[in-house]
Design brief:
- The strands form two sheets. An eight-stranded antiparallel sheet has the order 1-2-3-4-5-6-7-10. A two-stranded antiparallel sheet has the order 8-9.
- It folds into two domains: 1-132, Urate Oxidase (Roll); 141-291, Urate Oxidase (Roll).
- It is α+β, with helices and mostly antiparallel strands.
- The radius of gyration is 23 Å and the shape is globular.
- It is built from six helices and ten strands.
- Residues 285-292 have low confidence and may be disordered.
- It comes from Amycolatopsis orientalis (Nocardia orientalis).
- GO terms for molecular function: urate oxidase activity.
Length: 292
């Protein structure tokens, strides 16, 4: 029986980075979590413990901080591309790099040049892979919490002896959107594209009369692809944040879709991919797909 080393990578996970860029009395804040992973000819360290080709994870962490000082971080996609290309170009034995970045939003407090309030749980994300002279950029967002108090139905599903869920023609639809979209190319106005994709996702969720969360998912992905030619595919994960009507009949009260119990778990989890048939060939290896 032959035993071999399979695909592998290593790096520094969740480097916390906060930068303050000063323009006179006006300050600009960036709050990031950066994870780096390198891959290449690393058999020696696994098989014999020879670390001659291992770029220490501490070095990767220091590089993140140094790059943040040497030039403005800018858009997270550009920062990730700079880091990934640096690692691949600087070390002959490193053939690929993946850089994951979450951006934690802060809002400027009105009337103040250097005071901020945290924007909430929503994060902007990117995953950049650099390998074989190519770069793939997968951006997205996490924890975009949305709710519509009508315009959603769910009925016509099969029933068996275990089915207790009542059909409904009017329900609350709520979810916390996790979205990833793969770009075609890298010469893109990242900030504008991200803002527009986010807008499209929100508007479609609000406007689409929903017969199922699956239908809403497809409509959201389809709308992004129709409006944003730089996006090749959209992947969405939508937990169904259930809101159940409270039975008020013991109190002699009628509940006309006004009083609900918000259940945090268990929840339905709806996931799917929407892609264009004319998209550039992804050419993605196992490690790049993991970025989704």
């Amino acid at each position: 029986m032959a035993i071999t080393l399979g695909p592998n990578q290593y790096g520094k996970a969740e480097v916390r980075l906060v930068t303050v860029r000063r323009e006179g009395t006006v300050h600009h804040l960036k709050d990031l979590t950066v994870s780096t992973s390198l891959r290449g000819d690393l058999a020696a360290t696994h098989l014999t413990g020879d670390n001659a080709d291992v770029v220490a994870t501490d070095t990767q962490k220091n590089t993140v901080y140094a790059f943040a000082k040497e030039a403005p971080v800018g858009e997270i996609e550009d920062f990730a591309l700079r880091l990934g290309r640096h690692f691949v170009d600087s070390f002959d034995h490193i053939s690929g790099a993946r850089v994951l970045i979450d951006e934690h939003g802060w809002n400027r407090i009105s009337g103040h040049d250097h005071a901020f309030s945290q924007a909430g749980s929503e994060k902007r994300t990117t995953a950049v892979t650099v390998q074989d002279g190519q770069a793939w950029v997968v951006s997205g967002l996490d924890d975009l919490v949305v709710l519509k108090s009508t315009g959603s139905e769910f009925h016509g599903f099969p029933r068996d002896k275990y089915t207790t869920l009542a059909e409904t023609n009017d329900r609350i639809l709520a979810t916390a959107v996790t979205a990833r979209w793969r770009y075609q190319g890298d010469g893109i106005d990242w900030a504008t594209s991200h803002a527009e994709v986010r807008r499209i996702l929100l508007e479609t969720f609000a406007d689409k009369h929903s017969l199922s969360l699956q239908q809403t998912l497809y409509a959201m992905g389809e709308a992004v692809l129709k409006e944003r030619g730089e996006v090749a595919e959209v992947r969405l994960s939508l937990p169904n944040k259930h809101h159940f009507l409270v039975d008020l009949s013991p109190f002699g009260l009628k509940n006309d879709n006004e009083v609900f119990y918000a259940a945090d778990r268990p929840y339905g989890l709806i996931e799917g991919v929407v892609l264009r048939d004319d998209a550039e060939d992804a050419g993605l290896a196992w490690h790049t797909l993991a970025a989704f």
